[in-house]
Amino acid sequence: MQTEKRLPSLGETLFVLIGFGLIMILFIIKFDISIHLALLTTWFLIIMVGLKIGYNYREMQKGLLNGISDGLEAVLVLLSVGALIGTWIAGGVVPSIIYYGLAIIDPNIFLMAAFIICTVTSIATGTSFGSAGTAGIAMMAIGASFGFPLPLVAGAVISGCYVGDKLSPLSDTTVMTASLSKVDLIDHIKSMLTVSLPAWVIAAVLFLITGFFFNGNGDLSAATSTMASLNEYFSISWYMLIPAIVVIGLLAFKMPSIPVILFGAFLGTIWAYLFQGATFLQAFNIMYAGNSIESGVAFIDNLLNRGGIVFMLDVIALIIFALGVGGLMERIGVLRAIGNYLSKWANNPGKTTVSTLLAGFLGNLFGGAYVSIITASKITGDNYDRQHIDRRVLSRNTEAGGTITTPMVPWSDGGVFMATALGVSTISYLPFLWFNLLVLLISVIYGFTNKFIWYTDSNTNVSEEIVELEESNRKKEPATPVGS
């Protein structure tokens, strides 16, 4: 006879969370075993708890598959971006951006310029992955030529990329957060601006000041050598930038991201064939195999020998394992149990804000960007309603806890992609994610000082419920509770 299902107890919930942390530490730090196997082992830990509280294998497998299914869009985006990176390097798009960047960007303002360029690119395209894989790679090469530490450059690049991922109406996470939080998209963006704008300004100033500080360590002869190498191996011209302009334009007109990115990859193939001396078959194969170059400049080879669908397969496998963790935890009720415990503690706007940030971060620990948005909004949403806090605050905090913390987790989709695409480990660039860290800090400050915390009129809500009930009764249909 099957045991009756129940929510995990506090002890069982802590067992899963602590067990997850210990597995990660032992596998990755102690024994240097693949993070993929660490996540796979966590599946069995969760399954063991699931069996104890009444779930059978088939039910948990369904939860596992549902979790993976929730992230399939991210997988398709990664495959598309991988193809784009490879062909845009081979087609001269990225090398031309690097060349002109070295020619016109002053080393004194480089870090701030990289932050701004990636901000504009991500807002125009709505994708942090696409922005990092194109403009971001270019900024990494320019920064290396100027003598900046690569983790610092990566911090500026990723900070800029996540401005658009958080704020752009073209971003899937922005649209998804507004939808799950039941907030109008434009109202959601306006709410985020109260946190993001001051965070962006402070981060820009910090990158500007740091750029002046590091200028003395830069070796401009490296920049000259890089430009010479790019000129030797690539045809550099303004019209190499046309694929980038076309893709940004299509995304700005709200065309679907995956076909647009794939179209951009195909344009890169055409450019490699027409202008870079590759045969069509060689250029076409780059979409799968990635770019290969031996320029003799070590960091240029490191940054430009990448891309292609193959480049993303390891990342995708890791994301699938992580999504499986999130799906299993959702299925056996661990995330719901965490939400119950958080709601008992979060009895004011400050604690409620912190609870949403924590729920989003947990989602990234156990899945990735999409999972984090679901956990942050679903676990803590009812608590905002109980305190009559406007759901615009929920949506704003959901983006802060979910989207913003994604590149901070080494095994999340954002963390894996950024480390792979930019060639810098998550732990190395983490201290320099100044925009992301400032968003978290300002969100907490607003919560505890009651700044930009808007409230609903509870009396209005009651009146709306009465009207809805009356209309429903007239139609002889069951009433729909407010907020459902």
Secondary-structure-based class equals mainly alpha
Radius of gyration: 24 Å
Overall geometry comes to: globular
The count of strands amounts to 0
* Most strands sheet: none
Q: Ends: how far apart?
A: 35 Å
Average pLDDT number? 84
* Amount of beta strand: under 5%
Provide the low-confidence segments as ranges. 459-484
* Portion of residues within helices: over 70%
User: Please, how many helices?
Assistant: 24
Topology as a string of helices (H) and strands (E): HHHHHHHHHHHHHHHHHHHHHHHH
Task: Tell me briefly what this model is.
This protein is mainly α.
Protein architecture, described:
It is a single chain. The chain has 24 helices and no strands. Residues 459-484 have low confidence and may be disordered. The chain has helices at 10-30, 35-52, 57-70, 72-90, 93-104, 110-125, 128-146, 150-167, 172-181, 185-214, 220-233, 242-252, 257-275, 280-289, 298-304, 309-332, 334-345, 349-365, 369-386, 391-401, 413-422, 426-429, 434-449, 458-474.
